[in-house]
Amino acid sequence: KKAGAHTQKLMEMVIADDHTLVSFFRKRITCSCLDKKHKEVKSIKKMGYCNNDKCPLPGRKVERSKMLYCTRCRYAYYCSRDCQEAAWSEHREECKERAEEIAKFERIRNPNEV
């Protein structure tokens, strides 16, 4: 179950654009060696990965700022409402489990709220 939690992020790293990769490593490397490269690539649009296996987009890639996410589990991202609906039968069970985990965490974090 835990391994599946990182699938989306791992897939995005595999297909990542230069902006995403440089930003990722720049946050984790303490030297300024990536500052120049970051200036070069910051105008590149960040791309995401549609969670629908049958997504019609080339490589299932979509500009991240235009992606939709599952509001129930907040994990799966899609290029469109159509892709989200098409993937629902496969996403349903994982969504339910994640939503329950989120609710449990919220109850622990905010015990005085209903």
Please characterize this protein's 3D structure:
- With 114 residues, the chain is mostly helical.
- It is 52% helix and 9% strand.
- It is built from five helices and four strands.
- The chain has helices spanning 2-5, 7-14, 18-28, 35-41, 81-109; strands at 47-49, 61-63, 68-69, 77-78.
- Strands 1-2 form a two-stranded antiparallel ribbon. The chain has a two-stranded antiparallel sheet with strand order 3-4.
- The longest helix has 29 residues, at 81-109.
- The relative contact order is 0.12.
- Residues 1-5 have low confidence and may be disordered.
What brief labels describe this structure?
114 residues; mainly alpha; two-stranded antiparallel sheet; 5 helices; flat
Write the layout of secondary structure elements.
Layout: H1 2-5, H2 7-14, H3 18-28, H4 35-41, E1 47-49, E2 61-63, E3 68-69, E4 77-78, H5 81-109
Antiparallel strand pairs: 1-2, 3-4
In short:
The chain is mostly helical. It has 5 helices and 4 strands, in the order H-H-H-H-E-E-E-E-H.
- Unreliable segments of 5+ consecutive residues: 1-5
Alpha-carbon distance between the two ends: 28 Å
> Which class of secondary structure composition applies to the elements?
mainly alpha
Elements, N to C (H/E): HHHHEEEEH
Provide the residue-averaged pLDDT: 85
- Count of helical regions: 5
- Rounded radius of gyration (Å): 17 Å
What is the helical fraction, as a range of percent?
Answer: 40-55%
Main β-sheet, spatial strand arrangement: 1-2
Number of DSSP strands?
Answer: 4
β-strand percent reads: 5-15%
How is the biggest beta sheet arranged? 2 strands, antiparallel
Shape: flat
